[in-house]
Amino acid sequence: MSLIPQLLLALVLQPPPGQSEFVPVNELPAAEKLPAAPFLIVAYAFVWISVMFYLWTIWRRLNKVESDLDALARKTPQR
Amino acid sequence: MKKAFGPLLAVAGVMFVVAPFLIANAPYESTMGLIQKIFYYHVPSWFAMYLAIAVCGVASAIYLFKGTPVADAYATAGAEVAVLFGANGLVTGPLWGRVAWGVWWQWDVRLTTALLLELIFIAYLMVRRFGGPGAEKLAAATALFGTATAPFVYKSVDIWRTVHPNTNVIPTLRPSMGGPFAFSSLAFLLLSTLLLTARVHLAKRQMMVDQLYLAHEDQL
Predict the structure, then answer these.
(1) CA of A71 to nearest chain B CA: how many angstroms apart?
(2) I need a labelling partner for B157 at 20 to 30 A (CA). Which of A16, B184, B211, B215 fits?
(3) Tens of pLDDT along B41-99?
(4) Considering only alpha carbons, which residue of chain B is nearest residue A35?
(5) Burial track B14-33 (b if 16+ CB lie within 10 A, e otherwise)
(6) Contact residues on chain A for B172, CB-CB shorter than 8 A
(7) Where are the domains of chain B?
(8) Residue B156 and residue B117: Cα distance in Å, rounded?
(9) B168-199 burial code (b ≥16 CB/10 A, e <16)
(10) pLDDT tier at A76 (50, 70, 90 boundaries)?
(11) What is the chain B residue with the closest CA to A45?
C-alpha cells in the first residue's frame, strides 16, 4: 500500500549528479585557505612517504636476495 | 633498462619535485578552492594503479594459461604496485572529501568499488603469501577478477549517480589546469613503471635463489 509514496519519495530524494567540469577562478576566499592547507600537505606527504617506503622495502629485499644468492653460489660447486 | 633505471629514477624524482610548483601555480577551482589541488596527486595515483593492474592482469592470464614463470614475476610486481597506488588514492580521496563534502567517506558507488578493487589486490598478495603450494595459480585467477573489475570502477561515476566528480572533468580541464595535471600524471606513470621494473627484477632474483636451493638440495 505505502510502496508507491515511498518510491516517489526515493525518486525525489536522489542525490544531485556529480560535477562534470572544473571551472578555474583567480581569487580564493581567505576563509578557505587555512582549513584546506593541512589536508593538502598531508595528502602530498603521504604519497611521498609511501613511495619512498616501498622503494626502501624493494631495496632491502633485494639486498637479502643478493646475499642469499652469494651464499648459495658458494655452497653449490660449478659442474 | 638496467642502465636507464638510475637516470629515469632521477628524472621521476625531479618531476616529483617540480610538480608541486606547477600545481601551486594552477588556478583554484571555483567551488572547492585550494583543496581541489589534491586532484593533481589523487587522479594520477589511480592512473598508476590502473597501469599496474593491467600489467598484473595480462601477466596473470599468461601465467594461468601458459605457466610462464616470468609472467608470474610481472603479476606479483603489478599487484604490489597496484596496492601501493590504490592506497595513495584511498588516503588522498578522503582528505579531499573531508573538506569538499564535509565527510571523510561516503558509501558511494565510486568510493565503494575503489575500496573493493584495492581489497581484491590485497587478497591477491595474501593468497600468495599464505596460500601454500599452488597459491600462484589461485592468485592469478584472483587477479583476473580484479582486472575485470577495474573498468567498472572507472566508469561507475558515469553510469550511476554519485557525489564523486565524473570522468568528464579530465577532458574538459582548462590548459592552466590540464598542463600541471598532465605533468603530474606523467610523473606518476614513469614512477610506477620504474617501481614495476625494480619489483620484477627482485622477483627474478628470488626465482634464481629458489632454483639454486633446489640444485643444492639435489646434490645432497
Answers:
(1) 10
(2) B184
(3) 999 999 999 999 999 999 999 999 998 999 999 999 999 999 999 999 999 999 999 88
(4) B99
(5) ebbeebbebbeebbbbeebb
(6) 20-22
(7) 2-26+36-158+174-219
(8) 13
(9) ebbeebeeebeebbebbbbbbbbbbbbbbbbb
(10) low
(11) B92
Closest-CA residue to B55 (of B91, B80, B27, B30): B80
C-alpha to C-alpha distance for A36 and B34, rounded to whole angstroms = 6
- Closest residue of chain A to B170, computed from CA coordinates: A21
Chain B residue with CA closest to A31: the answer is B33
Residue A36 has its nearest CB partner, among B30, B42, B99, at B99
**Nearest Cα to A53, choosing from B195, B218, B90, B110?**
B195
Determine whether the interchain pair B165/A18 forms a contact, defined as Cβ–Cβ distance below 8 Å. yes
**B41 and B88 Cβ atoms separated by less than 8 Å:** yes
The Cα–Cα gap between A47 and B85 comes to 8
Q: How confident is the model at residue A6 (pLDDT cuts 50, 70, 90)?
A: confident
Check B99 against A35: CB less than 8 A apart. Answer: yes
What are the chain A neighbours of B37 within 8 Å (beta carbons)? 40
Contact A50 B177 (CB under 8 A): no
Cell numbers standing for residue B158: 558515469
For chains A and B, count residue pairs whose Cβ atoms are closer than 8 Å. Answer: 139
Residues 6 or more apart whose Cβ sits within 8 Å of residue A65: B202, B205, B206, B209
Beta-ladder partners of A24: B29
Q: How far is CA B199 from CA B72, B80, B204, in A?
A: 12, 8, 9
Which of B98, B168, B202 lies at the smallest CB-CB distance from A39?
A: B98
R_g over Cα of chain A: 29
CB contact under 8 Å between A22 and B37, yes or no, is no
The radius of gyration of chain B from alpha carbons, rounded to an integer in Å, stands at 20
